Amino acid sequence: MAKPVVIHLINQLELGGTELSLVTLLPHMQNNFDNQVCCLGQVGPLHKDLEDAGIIVHTLGSSNRFDLRLIRRVQLLLLTTKAKAIVTYLPQADMIGRLAARRTGTPVVSAQRSSYHRRPYLRLPDRLTRPLVTEYVVQTGVAKQRFPSGETTVIPNAVGLDVAQERDEARALLRLGPEDIAITCVSNLRAGKGHNTLLQALALLPTHVSWNCFLIGEGPEQARIEQQIIKLGLSQRVRLLGRRRDVPHILAGSDVFVFPSLAEGMSNALLESLAAGLPVVASDIPANKAVISHDQNGLLATAGDPADFAKQLVRVLTSADTRATLAHAAEAHVREHHAPAVIASKWEAVLERVTTP
């Protein structure tokens, strides 16, 4: 008997957190469902990763995010694949998926990553099309409060656990000496990600501590960040590495992960750093607090407060014991709560619920 087809609708297949989560999770959800991905835009670098894992990928190739013809094209896909459910990710795909499924009667699972409440212009379309959603999936209990209680399930992100990498090779790549402490931040270079807070905090660190900071990511704030690095006198210690596909390799050569975001859904980059066994200093926003318990499996600093970030960084930079204790607890937390098999079983329960007549 053929497995029920579930279409996962997403804007693109670039190296973003939502896209990477599909690559991590879907291979663990193929036993009971035929999970297929539909990308509204052009083929991205993760297309091959999904196909190599046995996931069928449909690419619509649209370059216009407001192209209403996509609704009809998604409708045809739902009909031709005889899909039993559609899972939508991120606002554009979410709206198109809801409207397409309205015509076909396909159950809609809306996977929320905290975009709507941060963008006022999205709230009205979301509210008008909420009756078309069968079930919401959110990442934290705090996020659940914004959605209908009887139609919302909390499922955190999954993170791959096969993170063993060669530390010495990674540190050689980063040109680090044996005593250098590597601080890494993985985040798009755009407003709201907290890079300004991080750089000011680094400028406050004691001069006797030997550290280097690596910023992984790209975005519209890059020029401003480069200027701030120069202004704060950090050019010899802070390096921008751009967008990378070898993030696990760089994490293997790192000693501390820092995540200063001012607003965020549950971050894959944060989970990956915990899985890599790194001590973490992160902002105390709700999504981070859902993963990190202060002084247990990481350290939390007040969002937007450079002095508090510097204080928490000093704790991990000056104590190898603190780094080791936090790293061990971080890795254990991820294995218990965010392993792909654990999260896949939660998702399959949702899909069973919405596809059962």
Précis, in short:
The mean pLDDT is about 90. The strands form two sheets. This protein has a seven-stranded parallel β-sheet, with helices on both faces.
Characteristics:
Rossmann fold; seven-stranded parallel β-sheet; 15 helices; alpha/beta; 357 residues; 2 domains; six-stranded parallel β-sheet; single chain; 13 strands
Strand order of the largest sheet: 3-2-1-4-5-6-7
The CATH superfamily of the largest domain is known as Glycogen Phosphorylase B
The CATH architecture of the largest domain is: 3-Layer(aba) Sandwich
Q: Which shape, going by the Cα principal axes?
A: elongated
Give the count of helical stretches: 15
User: Total number of β-strand segments?
Assistant: 13
- Terminal-residue CA separation: 17 Å
Structural class: alpha/beta
Query: What is the CATH topology descriptor of the largest domain?
Result: Rossmann fold
Number of domains: 2
Strand content: 15-25%
Topology order in helix (H) and strand (E) letters: EHEHEHEHEHEHEHEHEHEHEHEHEHHH
The CATH class of the largest domain, by name, is Alpha Beta
Mean pLDDT over the full residue set: 91
Low-confidence stretches: none
Radius of gyration: 21 Å
Helix content: 40-55%
**Main beta sheet, described?**
7 strands, parallel
